[in-house]
Design goal:
Elements (H helix, E strand, L loop, with lengths): L2 E5 L12 H12 L6 E6 L5 E5 L2 H19 L32 E8 L2 E15 L2 E8 L2 E6 L4 E7 L2 E10 L11 E10 L4 E19 L2 E12 L5 E8 L4 E9 L2 E11 L4
Helix pairs in contact: 1-2
Length: 273
C-alpha cells in the first residue's frame, strides 16, 4: 500500500508561485531522487514536500536523506538559488543612496547559529500594507510578520499569529540614507511588547564603520558594515553587513546575554519589478 507523506521545511515563506522555499525543497528532492520508490506529488509554497511512499522503510530512507540535505543547505553546501544578479556580482562601492525597492516574492534564506542551537529560516516580502496611511513592506517568516516603513526601511510593528508582539515608537531606523562610511546617527526608541506588558526605552547609536568584501554561503559581496551600540551601556548590540546588490543584509552578528547569534545568507531570490 502506498503512503502519502510530507516533509516540511523548517522555515516559513509567503504563498507565492515559485518561492525560495520551493526552490530549496526542490533541490533537496533532487538530491534524494535515488530513493526510487518515492514519487513526488507536489512541493508547497512553504517548502512542504508531498510524496507517495511505497512502504515505511522507503519513507525512512527518504526522510534520512532529506535531513542530510537540509543540513547541507544550512552549511551552505551547493546552494545558489536566485534570479539576479549572477553569483559573483559585486555592487560598486558607495552606491546605497536610497532604500532598496522590494517586490512581493523577494526572499532571503539564512542559516543561524547560537549557543541555543542552529537552523535555517526564510524572510519573504509578502505584500505592501498601510499603517495609519503610511506604506509598509510586510516581511513574513512562518507566522511572524515584520512591518518595514517603505520610505526608509524603518521597523514599525511585529506580529505573531496575527497578534501584535512589538511596537517601535518611533519606527526604528535601521539605516539612514545614503549609507556612507563615517556616517552615524542616534535614535531613542520606545519598544512596547503588549503580550508581555513590557515597555522599555532604548537609545541606539549607529555608525557605518567600513565597506568590506564579505564571503557567505550565498556568494561574495561588497557590503557596508554597520555597528549598532546600546547608548546606555556602550556595548555592541549587533553588527550588520548590508549589500545593495542583495537589497538586504548578508550577515548579522547579534550580541545577546546568552551569547553570539550569527546569521549568514545561504540563498536569495529577487523578482524583477
Amino acid at each position: 500500500m502506498a503512503l502519502l507523506v510530507w516533509i516540511p521545511l523548517a522555515t516559513g515563506c509567503a504563498s507565492t508561485k515559485g518561492t525560495l522555499a520551493q526552490d530549496l525543497a526542490r533541490q533537496r528532492w533532487e538530491t534524494c531522487s535515488y530513493v526510487r520508490t518515492i514519487t513526488l506529488r507536489e512541493i508547497k509554497p512553504d517548502g512542504q514536500i508531498w510524496a507517495w511512499a511505497r512502504d515505511a522503510s522507503d519513507l525512512a530512507a527518504w526522510q534520512a536523506c532529506d535531513r542530510r540535505a537540509q543540513e547541507n543547505q544550512a552549511s551552505g553546501a551547493a546552494v545558489w538559488l536566485m534570479s539576479s544578479p549572477p553569483p559573483q556580482a559585486r555592487t560598486p562601492r558607495a552606491t546605497a543612496t536610497a532604500p532598496p525597492a522590494w517586490e512581493p516574492g523577494d526572499a532571503w534564506a539564512f542559516r543561524w547559529s547560537s549557543p541555543a542551537g542552529k537552523g535555517v529560516f526564510i524572510w519573504t516580502v509578502d505584500r505592501e500594507e498601510a499603517i495609519e496611511g503610511t506604506a509598509h513592506y510586510v516581511i513574513k517568516t512562518g507566522t511572524r510578520e515584520i512591518f518595514y516603513r517603505k520610505s526608509d526601511i524603518a521597523t514599525t510593528v511585529e506580529t505573531l499569529d496575527g497578534a501584535t508582539v512589538l511596537i517601535n515608537t518611533p519606527p526604528r531606523q535601521r539605516y539612514v540614507w545614503p549609507l556612507r562610511v563615517g556616517h552615524g546617527w542616534q535614535q531613542t526608541v520606545v519598544e512596547e511588547r503588549p503580550g508581555a506588558r513590557h515597555t522599555a526605552e532604548r537609545v541606539y547609536a549607529v555608525t557605518v564603520e567600513a565597506e568590506e568584501t564579505v564571503v557567505v554561503p550565498a556568494g561574495t559581496f561588497d557590503a557596508f558594515k554597520l555597528l549598532y551600540r546600546n547608548k546606555a551601556t556602550g556595548g555592541v548590540a549587533y553588527e550588520e553587513w548590508f549589500s545593495p546588490s542583495v537589497k538586504h543584509a548578508v550577515m548579522l552578528r547579534e550580541h545577546l546575554e546568552s551569547g553570539l547569534l550569527v546569521r549568514e545568507l545561504i540563498a536569495f531570490k529577487l523578482n524583477d519589478p
